[in-house]
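Record 1 of the preview.
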Amino acid sequence: MILAPRHTTFDPDPKAAAKQNGENARDIRQAFRLLDDQDASFAAQLASLSYKQTFGDGVSTVYSFRHGLNSLDVIAFVYEVATGTDVPIASCIRVDENNITLEFTVGVGLSANRLILVKP
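->
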């Protein structure tokens, strides 16, 4: 025996449907506002865990940076901006919780390198 599907018709009250749609739209807007707030908070947290600076004057081999990460536990990465190649750091001195000094074996070209500090 084959049963035919039952069809029901739904004829909502237009005013009630409009009210429900408005409430749904309001709820969706509120959810997006919460997500935006969380994204901003997350971005702020990430920013507080890293520091970036392009540097180089064409002559110096020693550079000091004030990073403001409030920790001696920072990891330093340096790369050449033009090529993306890692640049070896000869010496990395954590002066205090907010300052670091890097030394290189050769002079760094004018704004040629990029420092990235990460607080684990």
